[in-house]
Design a protein that fits this description.
By secondary structure, this protein is mostly helical. The chain has 4 helices and no strands. It has helices at 3-41, 45-61, 64-77, 84-104. Helix 3 packs across helix 4 (84-104). The longest helix is centred in the first third of the chain and has 39 residues, at 3-41. The protein starts with a helix and ends in a 10-residue tail after the last helix.
Length: 114
């Protein structure tokens, strides 16, 4: 095997690893955001679990803006008034927390920023 082939394989492995890390961070971010939304909507038990599962499942294939619009509509339907800029800020907070958790290897969330 040539040095070029070895470097190419190493690059491909690194690319795959980084993509997996991004996917995991996005999934964790969406879980944190959905959990935060459940608190705001006062959902508990099975209804909260269903909401979180549905939101995180949709978040895998949905871009951020449509996902935020969907969350905004769900909150509004539950009687919770939140602006889209406030939801973006909460999404950013959840993303930062998810990245920090990845760096240290554990869950850091001890509540929300309600």
């Amino acid at each position: 095997m040539t040095t070029f082939d070895e470097r190419e394989q190493a690059f491909e492995r690194r690319f795959v690893h980084e993509e997996e890390q991004r996917f995991r961070a996005r999934t964790r971010r969406n879980l944190l955001l959905a959990t935060w939304a459940c608190e705001r909507m006062r959902l508990h038990g099975d209804s909260a679990q269903r909401f979180v599962e549905n939101f995180t499942d949709r978040g895998v294939l949905t871009a951020d803006e449509p996902l935020l619009a969907e969350l905004h509509a769900g909150l509004k339907k539950a009687g919770v008034e939140e602006t889209l800029p406030a939801l973006r800020k909460e999404m950013e907070r959840c993303a930062a927390l998810a990245r920090a958790e990845q760096r240290v290897g554990l869950a850091l969330d001890q509540g929300s920023s309600a």
